[in-house]
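Please think about what follows:
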Amino acid sequence: MGSHSAARQHRNQLGEVVAIHHDRPNRGTTLGFVAAWVGMSAITLINPAETFLLAIVPTFAFLIIWVLIYLMLAGERLVVCERGILFGSVAPFLRPRAIGYEQIVPGSIVPISGKITRVYQQTGLWAITNLRVMWWSRQGISLAGPLVAETSRRRDATHQVPLAGRRPRLPETPWIIGTRAPAEQVTADIGRAARAAGFAELASATNAARPRSLSGNPTDIAAQLPGIRVPGSLRAH
């Protein structure tokens, strides 16, 4: 599933695509995959099979395995749409999560310009759906939004407009993703789309957010990752 295909499944909820940001593996990671494939293939040739066909079958099998792993890792996307964002992987068998702008805490969308991999150390969270930061990630964005269970992966999801004068419950769940593009460019795209959709408070706060580099220190969460609540924190900031 590609980014545009995933976005089409959520068009009723999120509208049209405004911008697409990815966080594909860097050159070192790609070369590592190639080296692993070559190494595993070479091992099978130490004691080759009786026929040439049987000798090359493991090589092709290893190639397919490593290509599939690469595609799974390379599928991370942040798709900025008119009324919200798609957040997560578009790799085969996976679907990103849809988050409407009304589900995001104003002031919580911030650009992380460096050391984004420290987010795990800083928050104490590991291997969860809403933290999409790989070992090659250098930058990205953070936001406080809905619980994972309150996001949508279904193609039949419809856009829910909050009642006038009422704001939906915002549980301040951290959503953090790495991006290849400068973090400030990503937040600028979100800010423009949010303003055009009528979310002026969210747009203004997002455009005013300054880039920051993560320290890895849990005591800096309030300053560096505003709006989120993590286990062990006394209160949401």
Q: What stands out?
A: The two ends are 36 Å apart (CA to CA). Residues 155-170 have pLDDT under 50 and may be disordered. Residues 144 and 172 are 5 Å apart (CA to CA).
